[in-house]
Backbone:
């Protein structure tokens, strides 16, 4: 569950940054075609367009491979396409080559850091975020602090995570950051502070469903099933098909002895990608006769 939460935080931040990207070179027809394909979410088509640009520059024996050329811009945008296509290694390869020509473009390091987070390469993620800090304006630092806190959390460096997250939230509070703060307090065993921040995050943005998931999970650990169901119900009102909350609702029903309803929910959660639901199905719904 922690990995899913960290990824939600990271991806929501990356979508913000992509909208801010300024092209390295003035856009021409070929770059416009690629970007148009990206806007239509036709990433395969965009990759083909950018690949032709890159191959044409390489065929020029390097004459067109300069920091001002279309070659590096194509590398960056192709990496973004690979990101959306879940082709992590191809994206990192393009970003590394882009950085050799344009080493001061912070979004390249940020995108690398998000890919490293998906790969659970938290040390590499930290290194990329530190590089990004070197090339960002000071007003952008709090966002990097929030991402870096997530990386520290992945490494179980809770004190470092807490310091960075508080730095970021001191400038701008949002539901994602406050919910993450609650989770760090939970990991440190400060459950009152954890629940305080979960509730605060809900007040900041009731549609950020990860908060309900973590609050409900804690309540279940404390055998507070009624309270857990309150958070689950609120979360499902905000996003009715959230697999994690559907699974947790099944857990509460199982605790209440409503096995048929629980099994129906476990089945829905399992087919929505929640592996833990399979264990519950095996134990409570389709037990093996011994």
Residues:
């Amino acid at each position: 569950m922690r990995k899913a939460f960290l990824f939600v935080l990271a991806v929501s931040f990356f979508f913000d940054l992509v909208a801010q990207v300024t092209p390295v070179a003035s856009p021409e027809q070929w770059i416009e075609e690629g970007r148009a394909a990206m806007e239509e979410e036709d990433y395969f088509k965009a990759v083909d367009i950018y690949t032709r640009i890159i191959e044409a520059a390489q065929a020029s024996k390097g004459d067109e491979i300069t920091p001002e050329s279309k070659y590096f811009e194509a590398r960056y945008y192709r990496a973004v396409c690979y990101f959306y296509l879940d082709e992590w290694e191809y994206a990192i390869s393009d970003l590394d080559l882009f950085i050799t020509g344009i080493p001061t473009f912070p979004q390249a390091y940020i995108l690398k850091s998000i890919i490293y987070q998906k790969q659970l390469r938290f040390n590499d993620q930290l290194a990329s975020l530190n590089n990004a800090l070197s090339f960002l304006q000071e007003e952008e630092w709090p966002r990097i602090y929030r991402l870096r806190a997530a990386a520290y959390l992945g490494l179980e460096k809770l004190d470092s995570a807490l310091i960075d997250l508080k730095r970021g939230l001191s400038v701008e509070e949002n539901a994602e950051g406050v919910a993450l703060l609650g989770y760090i307090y939970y990991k440190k065993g400060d459950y009152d502070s954890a629940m305080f921040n979960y509730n605060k995050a809900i007040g900041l943005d009731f549609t950020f469903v990860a908060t309900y998931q973590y609050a409900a999970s804690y309540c279940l650990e404390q055998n507070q099933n009624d309270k857990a169901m309150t958070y689950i119900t609120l979360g499902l009102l905000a996003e009715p098909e959230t697999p994690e909350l559907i699974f947790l609702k099944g857990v509460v029903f199982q605790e209440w002895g409503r096995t048929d309803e629980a099994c129906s929910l476990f089945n829905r959660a399992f087919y929505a990608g929640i592996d833990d639901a399979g264990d519950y199905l095996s134990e409570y719904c389709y037990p093996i006769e011994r």
